[in-house]
Specification:
The protein has nine helices and four strands. By secondary structure, it is mainly α.
C-alpha cells in the first residue's frame, strides 16, 4: 500500500510542513541542547573558572606596574585607550619597560610569554577579551596541567588542582586562608578554596556533557 494514499489531505499537509496538528516545531536552542557536546570549545567549558579568577584579579583592561592595586584606572588611565587597541606584541614590549601584570587574568611578563607560546595567539593579534581568554586557557592546560587533567577526569586529586591554581593566581587561597603570594607585591587571596573547589567539581562533572 502506498503510505501517502492513507493520509488525509489535512494530515499530509501537517506532516509535510513540519508540524502535527496545531503544535509548532521549534528549533532547539544551542545554549541548552547540542547533538555533540564535544562541539563546545575549551573556552566555553572553562568560562566558570575564568569568571571566578576575574573576581579576584581584575577586568580586561586591568594593569599593575609592579604592585597589586597600583593602577585602579587600568590601562585607560595611563594611555586613554583600552587593551583591544594594542597588539599582543606591543604588550610584550610594554612589559619590558613600564607594565607588569595585564588584563583580566593579570598576566605577568614571563606568564604572558608562556601563554602566547602555548596557544594559537599571534604577536600581531589585538589584545582583545577573546585573546585574553585564550591565554588563560593556555595557562590552565599547559602551564598547570594538573588542573586540566583533573577537569578531564585523568586524576581525582582536587587538592593538587587547587594548589596549582593558587600558585598561578595570587587571588586564590592556597591553604589555611592564605594565598601562595600573600604579602608579596601587595597580593592577598580573595577567592576561597571552598568556592574554587565547587567550580572545579562542576566543570569536571560537565566536561563532556550538556550544560
Amino acid at each position: 500500500m502506498n503510505f501517502r494514499s492513507i493520509l488525509t489531505p489535512a494530515l499530509f499537509a501537517s506532516l509535510a510542513f513540519g508540524g502535527l496538528g496545531s503544535f509548532p516545531v521549534q528549533a532547539a536552542s544551542s545554549k541548552n541542547f547540542c547533538l555533540n557536546p564535544h562541539h563546545r570549545t575549551v573556552r566555553d567549558r572553562l568560562k566558570p573558572l575564568a569568571d571566578l579568577i576575574a573576581r579576584g584579579e581584575g577586568n580586561y583592561n586591568s594593569v599593575n606596574r609592579g604592585y597589586a592595586g597600583d593602577t585602579p584606572g587600568g590601562i585607560q588611565s595611563l594611555t586613554g585607550m583600552t587593551f583591544e587597541n594594542y597588539t599582543v606584541g606591543q604588550i610584550v614590549s610594554y612589559q619590558h619597560s613600564w607594565l607588569h601584570a595585564v588584563g583580566r587574568y593579570q598576566l605577568i611578563p614571563s606568564t604572558f610569554r608562556f601563554a602566547v607560546a602555548n596557544s594559537d595567539v599571534s604577536p600581531l593579534d589585538m589584545f582583545t577579551p577573546e585573546v585574553q581568554d585564550k591565554l588563560m586557557v593556555a595557562l590552565v592546560l599547559n602551564k598547570r596541567p594538573a588542573v586540566g587533567d583533573y577537569l578531564k577526569d585523568r586524576h581525582d586529586s582536587l587538592g593538587l588542582a587547587m594548589d596549582e591554581m593558587a600558585r598561578e593566581w595570587a587571588s586564590i587561597e592556597y591553604r589555611s586562608g592564605r594565598g601562595y603570594y600573600d604579602h608579596t607585591g601587595g597580593n592577598r587571596a580573595h577567592i576561597s578554596r571552598s568556592h574554587l573547589a565547587k567550580v572545579l567539581r562542576k566543570i569536571k562533572t560537565d566536561w563532556y556533557f550538556i550544560t
